[in-house]
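lol forgot to send this yesterday, sorry. struct tokens for the thing we talked abt
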């Protein structure tokens, strides 16, 4: 079961990152060109929100069945882990949860804006910040097979 959830979490991450990059790029372009915020823009942002939340749910399941989650912390303690183990057990989950909270805040704030430019700006800022946080804490060495 662990391997199946791990593979789902790893492969679904490519799709989540792609849709998140598309949402951020769409918002930046909309902001820069003073585009009207239409249903296509709404859907792109909404899909990015939904898929990041779905990825979080898969990640939380993985965290509690994985040997790198709570089991690693309770067995070795924080001082007994290598930097790679600490990344998987603490840094990645914690920072990604913060990133998804920021994405959710961006979704909520964009709906309250009076102008389309400000709506695009909220999406660009909060989704972009969330994307940067996620990219900063990906286990690149494992993900890319290095």
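and heres what i got for the seq, position by position
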């Amino acid at each position: 079961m662990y391997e199946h959830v791990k593979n789902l979490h790893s492969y679904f991450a490519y799709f989540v990152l792609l849709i998140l990059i598309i949402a951020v790029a769409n918002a930046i372009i909309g902001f820069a060109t003073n585009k009207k915020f239409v249903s296509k823009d709404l859907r792109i942002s909404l899909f990015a929100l939904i898929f990041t939340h779905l990825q979080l749910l898969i990640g939380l399941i993985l965290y509690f069945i994985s040997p790198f989650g709570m089991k690693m912390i309770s067995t070795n303690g924080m001082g007994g882990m290598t930097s790679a183990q600490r990344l998987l057990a603490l840094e990645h989950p914690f920072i990604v949860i913060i990133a998804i909270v920021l994405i959710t805040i961006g979704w909520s704030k964009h709906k309250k804006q009076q102008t389309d430019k400000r709506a695009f700006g909220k999406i660009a800022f909060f989704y972009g910040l969330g994307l940067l946080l996620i990219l900063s804490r990906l286990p690149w060495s494992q993900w890319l097979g290095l």
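The mean pLDDT is 88. anyway ping me if u want another try
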